[in-house]
């Protein structure tokens, strides 16, 4: 059966990643146009607040990556290692393996895109024009939240994947073992 300590460890790491992604959504950078002038011209530029969302987003990205690596190493990436017993557990493990990777890639893409966009701050200055203020690029609301949602989906699916994988692995009986193998040897 699946190791309960392993599942709890992976769940806690995924929970921390989820909380970091939610924190990144709450603390994403916002910008405002600031006007400054001298004797010759007025200038406007973008002033950004805290950049902590980038750190939170990268932290969530790395923790999710670590948990995915842990699950894949423990299950030997589904394709390497001991054979699995045929049946519902193996079929379910195959399906959940694929879904787990899809959710993982979507979560990582959201977190990476949000972190990169949050870290990119336009610092240019323009001559003040009331009709054409500078474009202060910011992370779109919901980017980190989508990453957090897919972290949650990845967590649930990967836990079920590992449980089904472990069940199929533990139920495997090599060819020639058991009652049918004993009968064939008696002839």
From TrEMBL:
It comes from the Eukaryota. It is found in: Endomembrane system. This is Fiber protein Fb34. Belongs to the DESIGUAL family. The chain crosses the membrane at residues 55-79, 91-114, 144-163. It comes from Lupinus luteus (European yellow lupine). Residues 1-24 form the signal peptide. Keywords: Membrane, Signal, Transmembrane, Transmembrane helix. It holds the Pfam family DUF1218. The lineage of its organism: Eukaryota, Viridiplantae, Streptophyta, Embryophyta, Tracheophyta. It is a multi-pass membrane protein. GO terms for cellular component: endomembrane system. Its main location: membrane.
